[in-house]
Amino acid sequence: MSFWEYLSTRHQQLLTDAFQHVSAVFQCMVIATVLGVVIGVVSYRSGWGGSLAITSTATVLTIPSLAAIGLLIPLVGLGVAPTVITLTLYGLLPIVRNSIVGLRGVDPSLVDAATGIGMSRLARLCRVELPLAWPPILTGIRVSTQMLMGIAAIAAYASGPGLGNEIFRGIASLGSANAINQVLAGTLGIVVLALLFDAAYVLLGRLTIPRGIRA
C-alpha cells in the first residue's frame, strides 16, 4: 500500500488524532502562558528572583520528556494527566524568560509618566508594561508551541492523545506493510500542525502588536 493510499483509508483516524494533538498542545499552552506570565510578573523586578525563575524552569528541560512522563505515571496514572503536566512544565521556560526580558525592557520613563498621572501599580502593569512586553512574550509562546508539538508525540507512551500514537504503532510494528506509512503520517502531521500554529501566531502578532512597536 502506498503512502497516499494509506492516508485515504486512515484519514478519519488521522484527523481524530490530529484534533486531539492540537487540543492537547493548545490547552497546555494556555496554562503555560498564564503561569509563565505570572511568574515573570512576580520575579522581573528582582535580579535573583528572575534568575531563580529562569533557572528553575530551565532545569525541567534537562529531564528527558520520556523519563518525565514515565515518572508521572505512578503518581497520576495513564492518559491525559501526565501529558498535560509534562507539556505545561516543558512550555514554561521560553515564556518565563521572555516575560522577564520584555518587562525589564520597558522604558522606565514611560512607567514614570504613568505613575505621574496617578496610575496604580496594577494599572501600570496591565496598561503600560504588559502591552509593551507583549512582542517578546508572544515570541516565547511561539517557541514553546513548536517545542510542545514534538514533545506531545511522546505522550503516546502513556496512552496520551495525539499523532504520537500513529508513530508508536508504526515503530512497534516495524517490518510490517504499513509501519513506515504510520510513522511518516504521524510525523508529517505534526510538522503541518506546527506550521499552522506558527502561521496563526504570526497573524495574532499582526492583530495585537501596533505597527510602531513591530518596527
From TrEMBL:
Domain of life of the source: Bacteria
Task: Name the Pfam families for this protein.
Answer: BPD_transp_1
Where does the record place it?
Cell membrane; Membrane
Q: Which residues cross the membrane?
A: 24-44, 51-73, 79-96, 179-204
Key words of the record: Membrane, Transmembrane, Transmembrane helix, Transport
| SUPFAM superfamilies in alphabetical order | MetI-like
Q: What is this protein called?
A: ABC transporter permease
Source species of the chain: Streptomyces anulatus
